[in-house]
Specification:
Length: 616
């Protein structure tokens, strides 16, 4: 079944609520004060099963200028507008303001209902039609069906139903496969059930017993029950008027303007870059002007900052700007909004959010060029080391499959991870070349070392880069070889000069002749015949070649001494002994005995058990 949301719009007392009641049989005025005063103060809701395959949901909004903010809370999720103009009064101030709001919000289609048609003659009705055509010329309502009706006599209602059915057939289905988002427009408690939040489901779907998050508070809640158009359901999808019975929260902890969405996916924002349109009827908008910002069902005080050093935005102009919100809100790229003045409180413009990343601009930056061409590829290129899927979803509001498709069209590389990480292809190649150069330079400066420590390479060339990005760069670099934590050039070989060969031999002989009474390293290196830095490198070469064995930071033994020690202990397998016995067997002092025993424990030649050891 197709679900279409229709919003009423028009001046106060032009018969919006009466028309909805005449069409659906439901009185959308739900508050006692509304019935007493005869005007709609807050949002009202009704529904109509127009055909077996088409269900219409009506959002009846107030027309009085004092309640336009309530009107804005209801008009955001509608598919088409039922624009109501009383034939006996024609166009009034809120008629124009509601029309501007619908146009600024990008509502694509609508039907014009000329109510109270029974109160005027044909000539006056014809004049009103001309005035309305002049108002909507060049807008989304130009050429829209215009139906005279009377909620009292019923005249024109059948024709209006037919036009609703025809227009509804042209409305595309909302994206039920998108991210779940439900802007809350009402919150109340039901005895025996608890807290209920309602709204128009603008994207995705929600099921009974699913987990949702309330934005911007960040609190996670369980959906105890779902209703669609007043009837219980297991699941609600985009385009439906939805009520959710929420567990573990009081009604006072939720408010209109909050948004229910998928847990852990998005981040509330306080800055958004946008394309802003100022109405021709508005006064020039100054840089840093305070405004009321309306998006979805939220109303937030905000400040408009013009880019490029502009002092004002003239009436009727469109420009890129930044809106700074006083309070955080869930706003995604593509979301439309309205701005209203503080005094007098009238609608002055609106726009569409483009970027929510709080990018810092320099005065010389081409902000318009950036925002006009902002996509997944550009966002990834702007990030120093690329961006992961989760961040791209939060920044764009797109689904992972949409991001993957966009990445495939852009020159991006996906680094394999549990969730893909994207980097710019040109940056990736350039970074890999930098790594190759850095390793070659390291070899030239340190010819006796096997290669560069991977962590040092990262700190020098890619500080702050995720380790998996470095690994991906190294994995595809044919010129480099990764050996454990060391990176070397593939063609790098160790070639010693004559004095270095002689020094290496001198160092090895010193340790070999000492046996288990290992000499002090500093003393051996000092007598090697080369300067300390090269002598230390030659020692490291002998250790890598396993001709020398490091027992701890201070003690190094020749391999032959360690092998002889193992042979000496082999016949004693299963023997328990203490340090004194070990000293007697080896003829060494405690200075060497304790470090050697700890080394043998690590090598699983012996095992310590209290004050004794066991030969394994």
């Amino acid at each position: 079944m197709k679900h279409i949301i229709i919003g009423t719009a028009g001046h106060i007392d032009h018969g919006k609520t009466a028309l909805v009641k005449a069409l659906t049989g439901i009185d959308a005025d739900r508050l006692e004060e509304e019935k007493r005063r005869g005007i709609t103060i807050d949002l009202g809701f009704a529904h109509l099963q127009l055909t077996p395959a088409l269900r219409l949901g009506f959002v009846d909004v107030p027309g009085h200028e004092r309640f336009v903010k309530n009107m804005l809370a209801g008009v955001g999720g509608i598919d088409l507008v039922l624009f109501v103009i009383a034939a006996d009064e024609s166009i009034k101030p809120q008629t124009r303001e509601h029309f501007d709001i619908c146009r600024l919000l990008g509502i694509p289609r609508g039907i014009i209902a000329l109510t109270k048609a029974d109160l005027v003659d044909a000539d006056l009705l014809g004049l009103v039609k001309l005035e309305v055509e002049e108002l909507v010329a060049g807008s989304f309502l130009e050429g829209a069906p215009m139906v005279p009706v009377s909620s009292v006599t019923g005249a024109g209602l059948e024709e209006l139903r037919k036009e609703l059915a025809r227009t509804a057939a042209t409305v595309p289905e909302k994206n039920a496969g998108g991210h779940f988002r439900l802007p809350i427009d009402r919150v109340f408690s039901v005895k025996g059930f608890g807290t209920v939040a309602t709204g128009t489901l603008i994207s995705g779907s929600v099921e009974k017993e699913s987990e949702v998050e309330v934005y911007p508070a960040g609190r996670r809640l369980r959906v105890r029950g779902v209703e669609v158009h007043g009837s219980k359901a297991e699941r609600a999808v985009a385009g439906q008027r939805t009520a959710l019975n929420l567990a573990d929260i009081e009604a006072a902890d939720l408010k209109r303007g909050d948004v229910l969405s998928e847990p852990g996916v998005f981040q509330p924002v306080q800055h958004l870059d946008c394309r802003l349109e100022l109405l021709g009827s508005a006064k020039p908008l100054k840089h840093r002007a305070p405004v009321h910002f309306h998006s979805g069902t939220a109303e937030i005080e905000a400040e408009v900052r013009l880019f490029g050093g502009a002092a004002t935005l003239p009436p009727g102009a469109t420009a890129y700007a930044r809106v700074v919100l006083r309070e955080p809100a869930l706003v995604l790229p593509g979301d439309r909004f309205i701005i209203r003045m503080f005094s007098p409180v009238v609608t002055i413009g609106g726009g569409v959010a483009i970027d929510i990343g709080e990018r810092r601009y320099r005065r010389t930056d081409d902000v318009a060029g950036r925002l006009e061409n902002l996509g997944v590829g550009r966002l990834v290129r702007e990030a120093e080391f690329g961006m992961g899927m989760a961040e791209l979803v939060a920044r764009t509001g797109k689904l992972p499959r949409e991001i993957a498709a966009a990445a495939a069209q852009a020159p991006l590389i996906a680094v394999p991870q549990p969730q893909p990480w994207y980097v710019d292809r040109a940056w990736f190649q350039s970074a890999r070349e930098r790594l190759v150069r850095a390793v070659k330079e390291f070899h030239r400066a340190n010819p006796l070392l096997p290669g560069m420590a991977r962590q040092d390479l990262r700190s020098r060339e890619l500080p702050g880069a995720p380790l998996f990005v470095l690994d991906a760069l190294l994995a595809g670099a044919k010129e480099l070889v990764v050996e454990g934590e060391t990176v070397r050039s593939r063609g790098h070989t160790l070639v010693l000069r004559q004095d270095e060969e002689e020094a290496r031999g001198s160092i090895e002989r010193a340790f070999e002749q000492a046996g288990l009474a290992a000499p002090a390293m500093a003393e051996v290196l000092a007598k090697s015949g080369v300067e300390p830095k090269r002598a230390r490198s030659l020692l490291e070469i002998l250790l890598r070649e396993k001709r020398l064995v490091r027992v701890n930071e201070e003690l190094v033994f020749h391999r032959a001494a360690i092998e002889e020690l193992r042979r000496m202990l082999a016949p004693r397998r299963g023997t328990r002994f203490q340090v004194g016995a070990f000293k007697e067997w080896t003829g060494i002092s405690r200075k060497y005995a304790i470090p050697l025993l700890e080394f043998l424990d690590r090598e699983h030649v012996t095992r310590r058990e209290g004050d004794e050891r066991l030969v394994l």
